[in-house]
Specification:
The structure is a homodimer of 179-residue chains.
Chain A: E1 5-10, H1 14-30, E2 35-38, H2 44-57, E3 62-65, H3 69-78, E4 82-92, H4 93-102, E5 107-112, H5 118-123, E6 126-129, H6 137-148, E7 163-165, E8 174-176
Parallel strand pairs in A: 1-2, 1-5, 2-3, 4-5, 4-6
Antiparallel strand pairs in A: 7-8
Helix pairs in contact in A: 1-2, 1-6
Chain lengths: 179, 179
């Protein structure tokens, strides 16, 4: 049991960000995060997406929504957890990823949509840049988790799936689990 | 000059996929691809996004839209290029990435939205899975390019930017280039 890793989505706008936030949540789940927090807002469609995928493909991820991002982050820190904020303005991931991996503190990774208030830059133990070019919070989270877990996350086999893929050279092969 | 790497987006639906496809294009640009093809459809908003980012942050990426995906892929192959299709049904990336990196053929990476026809599975030299769990084509492309370029893409410094980031522990620091 290493440290827990939770992903907090900041600034989700239900109209505009539904699909991007879904992708962030699916990356969180499939790349081995233990929890996903949709902060400051509720959007049941995100919860449905992640629950549906988990019931089919296995595993479980804590899903929390509607809590205050500021309070959640402060409480995480008060309990001894670490805050990591993904931002292209931060330090290059290669400079900090080993430090982050070695600390045994539980980790809260903040993934913002659009503008993130200074509060998060200040309270973060690490502001981490997955490159210093603008691209995508989905990409940033995926590359961060891949480097954090050193590629092992791509071998996860979530518990109790009803379907699983058998790798294939040219087609699609799935294994369906019956009752 | 290594091989060229182009990203082809298949199945873009302008209403539904605008933001996801923008993220795919921005990842293509910032992770060092030479070209981006929006196949079978035109969507000037994607072109505007990528051109705007390039004019500000530097570099240039070929942008092609509206060409037939089938013809483009066949022509790419006919000219001796290699086809890579990202799909969770394929072979695990770790098994094929060294082979792909070592071949000196130009590479066309197909990134689908939703269902991709069998044609692409068949014509692909490599069907590559960034894990066998459902997540995001944005994440899949980013992790693929990161492993292909072995992390070097996160140090790219595109030519002629008007703005650049200076990495920072807690805040935002940018360098603006005057005339």
């Amino acid at each position: 049991m290493g440290p827990k890793i939770y992903i907090l989505r900041y600034g989700h706008r239900p109209q505009r960000d539904k699909r991007i936030t879904s992708h962030v949540a699916l990356v969180a789940r499939s790349f081995g995060a233990h929890g996903f927090i949709l902060a400051d807002v509720k959007d049941d469609s995100i919860e449905r997406t992640i629950k549906k995928v988990s019931s089919r493909w296995g595993g479980s991820i804590d899903f929390i929504q509607g809590v205050s991002s500021y309070s959640f982050v402060k409480e995480w820190k008060r309990r001894g957890g670490e805050i990591i904020h993904l931002t292209m303005y931060g330090l290059h991931i290669d400079y900090v990823i080993d430090l982050i991996r070695r600390s045994q503190k539980d980790k809260l990774v903040i993934v913002g949509a659009e503008k993130v208030p200074r509060f998060f830059y200040r309270i973060a133990d690490f502001n981490v840049a997955v490159g210093h070019q603008p691209h995508s919070e989905v990409a940033a989270l995926a590359v961060f988790l891949d480097k954090y877990f050193m590629g092992r996350e791509l071998y996860l086999s979530p518990s109790n799936p009803t379907i699983r893929i058998a790798p294939s050279v040219k087609g699609k092969r799935v294994i369906i689990y019956g009752d």
